[in-house]
Amino acid sequence: MMASLMAINALAIDTMLPAFPNMISAFGLNDANQVQYIISSYLLGMAVGSLFYGPLSDRYGRKAVMMPTIIGYALFSFACSYAPSFEILLILRICQGLCGAAMGVLVAAVIRDQFEGDAMARRMSMIFMTFMIVPIIAPTLGALILKFAPWRVIFDMFAALGIILALWIWRRLPETLDPANVIPIQPDSIARTWKAIITNRMAMGYVLGSGMAQGALFGYLNASEQLFGETFNARDFFPIGFAIIAIGIACANFTNSRIVERFGARRVSHSAVFIFILMGLLQIIAAKIWPNSLPLFLVLITINMAMIGFIGSNFSSIAMQPFGAMAGAASSFQNMVRTMMGAVIGALIGQQFDGSVISIAIGFCVCGGMSLIFILWCERGKLFTRRRTNLEASE
């Protein structure tokens, strides 16, 4: 269930990618890069929405917040299918993202209600691994729909899935919020909570580092269809190529779930950051020497994206570690920062697309380097350490 809830956001993004050429034609867009805002607008809505659901769920419970937001997701999805203009579609996508944001925040809070430290990282990695099936099949699903129906039917599918999930949550999800951890919604209390999160050097360092990694990921997502269609002249291969890359991320999450409790979230994720930077550098070299080699591009970017599988769940669990009694508010604020950073940076990277891989490769290097700087800052220069959780310390 948790994996399905997280997966609707991946579905809302990745299923749309094969429809980009159809949407460019339908709305008469002069600049093909403009269609990328279909992704960025949804991510922007997710970022803003993430700020509110944590405090609401800390007060009213996880399930009480999930129900109306998943229904709202379904309604706005249905409205998107009738958008008369590109501008209105972007507004509706923001609203759709505002509702979808609840899923990312509340899934993390539900897991944090029950686990912490490396154990939480293992569960989160398993959830990520399960929901990564969606990016593997989503572009193929979108392409399949386009063979038999207009691109607007994709939004109708989102609406139907939202209703199904709402029924599942209503019937099967218990409330995980401990009554002892209920936090009233008070502006001064929320301000203190946000201050505690912002001033926690360790947590913010990993949030900012994760935001940079997400920026690289979103930059690739924004330009992925154009990369396959224009750079490599392989638009029909796009769903398969996208699936190969997504399988790499899924395998990384599965591997992480098996090794993180043995080696520790820091050691695993810090190693991944260095490999991520190295792969970005190799992407630049390859783009200069073999600019039209699709096989080489697939190998390098699959490794690059796989590193995000080791970075994302581990960075998130480390950043959440100090906030057991305020898991909802902490998850909410941290998701807002990560997603806002990722959306803005990803949009900037995507808009630099000029028909080559160079802009994406440079984005990987810069984002990886900045992520490393943030981690060096919060860890005070000491990488690859392992710290005991509160539960381990008390045993």
UniProtKB/TrEMBL annotation:
What is the predominant subcellular site recorded for this chain? membrane
Q: Which CDD domains match?
A: MFS_MdfA_MDR_like
Where does the Major facilitator superfamily (MFS) profile domain lie?
1-380
Lineage, please?
Bacteria, Pseudomonadati, Pseudomonadota, Alphaproteobacteria, Sphingomonadales
Q: Where's it found, cell-wise?
A: Cell inner membrane; Cell membrane
Annotated NCBIfam families? efflux_Bcr_CflA
Question: Which InterPro entries does this entry report, sorted A to Z?
Answer: Efflux_drug-R_Bcr/CmlA, MFS, MFS_dom, MFS_trans_sf
Q: What is this protein called?
A: Bcr/CflA family efflux transporter
This protein's membrane topology, according to the annotation, is:
Multi-pass membrane protein
Q: Which PROSITE patterns match?
A: MFS
